[in-house]
Every structure is written in C-alpha cells, then in structure tokens.
Write a structure and sequence with these properties.
The chain is an all-alpha fold. It is built from two helices and no strands.
Length: about 50
C-alpha cells in the first residue's frame, strides 16, 4: 500500500512530462510533414554509389 503513495505521483509526473513533450513537438512543427521523408528515401538517386 505504501508503494502507491510513490507510484501514483511518479506516474502522474511522467504522464504530464510526456504530454508537455508532445505539445512542444507539435508547436515546433515536428509533425508538419510526415510523407516527405518516406518519399525521399524511395526517390533518392543511387547513381553516385558503387555497388
């Protein structure tokens, strides 16, 4: 029972920290363009590489 007095505030702290990190990432534009990195990998030129 005493463990709950530590674990509940600790889990709330980590939940608020994760929420704050998510809000920060959204405001900084980290999720603004999700398709270009995947397309860039497929459309990349491999002519300069020796196989």
């Amino acid at each position: 029972m005493e463990a709950l007095y530590v674990l509940i505030p600790l889990s709330l702290f980590f939940a608020f920290a994760a929420l704050a990190a998510f809000i920060w990432a959204v405001r900084k534009g980290q999720f603004s363009d999700l398709s270009s990195p995947a397309e860039r990998l497929v459309l990349e030129d491999f002519e300069d590489q020796k196989i």
